[in-house]
Design brief:
90 residues, single chain, mainly alpha, 70% helix
């Protein structure tokens, strides 16, 4: 799913703002109780897009760990997500 997200953001870099807004919202909800994963995403989102794309798509344990708390919810439409789910069911 993150490979599709990365390709979509590559075509429209303004979509990266969705991840930034998600992180900002999560931080506001948590107040001063900021978990390590949220701090890590703030740092990651401050990097160049190519580095972010590499991190969210890497097939390593670290990549899988990052995707568990991904701030990229909302980048894909419901229809795009369903297409991905259906492709894996087939």
């Amino acid at each position: 799913m993150h490979a599709v997200i990365a390709r979509k953001i590559e075509r429209d870099p303004t979509l990266l703002q969705i991840a930034h807004k998600n992180v900002q919202r999560w931080a506001a909800q948590r107040g001063s109780d900021t978990p390590a994963w949220l701090t890590e995403w703030r740092e990651i989102l401050g990097q160049p897009w190519r580095r972010i794309a590499a991190l969210i798509t890497e097939p390593s344990e670290n990549g899988a760990r990052l995707r568990q708390s991904s701030p990229f919810a909302g980048v894909l439409t419901q229809q795009e997500r369903w297409r991905i789910y259906e492709a894996f069911r087939a």
